[in-house]
Design a protein that fits this description.
Order of helices and strands: HEHHEEEEEEHEEEHEEE
Radius of gyration: 35 Å
Strand order of the largest sheet: 6-5-4-7-8-9-10-11-12-13
Strand content: 25-35%
Largest sheet: 10 strands, mixed
Number of helices: 5
Length: 279
C-alpha cells in the first residue's frame, strides 16, 4: 500500500513539473511572437514614414556662424535635396561638417515635419603662433587649427618661443592662453592697450609687448596678480611724470618692481641702458 502511494506521489510530482514547464514554454513562445510582431510593425511603420513626402526636408537652418557661411556648412553636410527628415544619418552629417577646421562641434535637431537645424560652434582664435614659415590660428585650448591666409583679417597677439612642432602643450603655454582670454574678455585691463606679442621661455617665464609701449616680464606664475600690481605702478609713474616713452617693467619678483624707461620705439631687451627705478 505504501509502495503504491509513493509511486502515485512521484507520478503527480512529474505531472506538475510537466504542466509547469509547458506553461513556461507557451508563455516564452507568446512573448517571442509578440516581440517579433512589434518589431515587424515598427519596421513597417518606419518604412512607411520615411517614404512619405510629408517628411521631406524643405528647410535647413544653420545657427551659430561667425566666420563660416551657411553655404560652407551645407556644402560640407552633403544633405541631398528632398531627403526625408527621419532618414537623415545625423552622425555622418556631424562627421562631415566637423571636418572643417573652423568647426569645434556640431549638434543636429529635427523640427517636424520638414525642418532640419544644425547648431555649429566655431573655434575662437585667441592668438597666432608660428609653425615653420607660416603663422597659424590657435584657440583658447591651444589647438592650432588654421594657417593664416592672405584673406584672413585678424588682430591677435603673436606667441613666440613655444615649441613650433606643437607636439607638447606646456603648462606655461596653457597659462598664457588663459591670461590672454581673461584680458580679452575683461575691460579691467584697458591700461595694457593691445597685446601684440607674447614670448614664452621655460626658464624666465612670460613676457609681453603691448602697443602702448609696455614690455612686461611676468615670470612663470601669478600673472593676473602681477597685472593688477602693474596698474598701481603705472599710476605711480604717471604721478611722477615718468610715464612717457617705452617702459620695460620687470614684475617677475612680486616683492619688487623694476622699471626701465626708453625713449626710442624699439623692442625692449634686458640690458643696462636707460634709467631704472625701483618701486
Amino acid at each position: 500500500m505504501f509502495k503504491r502511494s509513493g509511486i502515485k506521489t512521484k507520478k503527480n510530482r512529474i505531472q506538475r513539473r510537466f504542466t509547469s514547464l509547458s506553461g513556461d514554454f507557451f508563455t516564452a513562445t507568446g512573448l517571442l511572437l509578440g516581440a517579433a510582431l512589434l518589431c515587424t510593425l515598427f519596421i513597417y511603420t518606419y518604412n512607411l514614414l520615411i517614404s512619405r513626402p510629408y517628411f521631406q526636408i524643405k528647410q535647413i537652418s544653420v545657427r551659430g556662424l561667425r566666420e563660416l557661411t551657411e553655404k560652407d556648412v551645407l556644402a560640407s553636410a552633403g544633405i541631398k535635396p528632398a531627403q526625408n527628415l527621419l532618414a537623415i544619418n545625423t552622425d555622418a552629417v556631424i562627421r562631415r561638417v566637423s571636418a572643417n577646421q573652423w568647426v569645434e562641434n556640431v549638434s543636429i535637431g529635427r523640427e517636424l515635419p520638414d525642418k532640419l537645424v544644425l547648431e555649429v560652434k566655431e573655434r575662437t582664435p585667441l592668438a597666432l603662433i608660428k609653425k615653420g614659415n607660416d603663422f597659424c590660428l590657435m584657440d583658447a585650448e591651444g589647438f592650432v587649427f588654421k594657417k593664416l591666409g592672405k584673406s584672413d583679417e585678424v588682430d591677435l597677439p603673436v606667441i613666440t618661443g613655444n615649441d613650433e612642432k606643437g607636439e607638447i602643450k606646456s603648462q606655461l603655454l596653457l597659462s598664457t592662453l588663459n591670461l590672454l582670454k581673461t584680458v580679452s574678455k575683461s575691460g579691467g585691463y584697458a591700461y595694457l592697450g593691445t597685446i601684440s606679442e607674447v614670448h614664452i621661455d621655460n626658464v624666465f617665464g612670460l613676457s609681453l609687448v603691448s602697443n602702448t609701449g609696455l614690455y612686461l616680464k611676468l615670470g612663470t606664475t601669478g600673472f593676473e596678480n602681477k597685472l593688477k600690481q602693474l596698474k598701481l605702478v603705472l599710476a605711480d609713474l604717471e604721478n611722477r611724470g615718468l610715464k612717457n616713452g617705452y617702459l620695460c617693467i620687470d614684475l617677475s619678483d612680486e616683492s619688487k618692481v623694476t622699471v626701465q624707461r626708453k625713449n626710442v620705439p624699439q623692442r625692449m631687451e634686458q640690458d643696462n641702458k636707460g634709467k631704472q627705478y625701483l618701486i
